Input
Amino acid sequence: MTLISTKYADTLQYTDHRPFAVEQSPWVLNQSWCNLLFAHWPVAVDTMRALVPPQLELDLFEGQAYIAVVPFEMREVSPRLLPSMPWLSFFPELNVRTYVKYKGRPGVYFFSLDAGNPVAVWIACNFYHLPYFDATMQCQKTLVSGQKQFSYKSLRTLGSTPNKKSIKAKAQLDITYGPTGPVYHSKPGSLEHFLTERYCLFTVFSGTVYRGDIHHKPWPLQPAMAQWRTNTMATPLGLALEGEPILHFVENIDTVEWPIKPLEPN
Output
C-alpha cells in the first residue's frame, strides 16, 4: 500500500460517528477537501420538492429544507493505491446541494458540481451520473490581520460542458471567506450536524436511483465569515438566495469513496 493510501485508510479507524455502517466492499477513490465553506440558506419545502426527483424523499430539519453553496479545493484525488497526478488530482470545485433520504438513509443530492478540471468533469458525468459542469475557477489565499481568507471565483463555461442542455443559465460565484474561530465538532441533533454529517450521495439517472458512499472523520468545523460579491449559483434552479446564510469553514478533511451503484426501486 502506498503512503497516500495508508493515510486515507486510517480514516476507517473512526466510524462511531456515522449514522449507518461503512460500506463493506473496498473503497476505490481518495481525495482531500480543503479550504471549504458551507453556506446554507432555508428554502420553502414546496419549492424544494419541485426541484428534487420524486424518487427521493426530502430530508428536513424541524420541517425546514435547506440548500447549500459549497466552494472548496480538491487535493490528492486519485484511485486507491495510485499516486496523485498534478494535472488531474488538484483543482477547485463548487457544489450546490440539498438533503434527501432514500429508504430511510440520509444523504446529499447535488443540483450542480462545477469543477476547474475538464477531465474530472468528463469522468464524473459519464461514470457517476452526476451533474458536473466545466468552469473557469481560481482560489487565492491571503492573510488579513493574521487570519486566513480565501478569494474564490468561479464562472461556468457552458460551451464545453457535457451537461450544457441540463442547465442553460450561467452560474457565477465571487466571494471572500475564511474562518473566524477555533475548530469544533457538531453535536448530534443540532442543525449544523444535520447540515454537514452526511456519508452518501444520491442521484437519479434514467429513472433509477444511484447511491455513492463516502467516509471521513467528523467534520472539523470552524465559525466563518463571507463577503459575497456575486452569487448566481442557484439562479439556474429559479432560486434567489436571500438573507444571511449559515456559515461554517473547514480547513481540510480526508475522504474515501466507493463506486456509485444503482439501487433496487421502492
User: Anything to note?
Assistant: The mean pLDDT is 91.
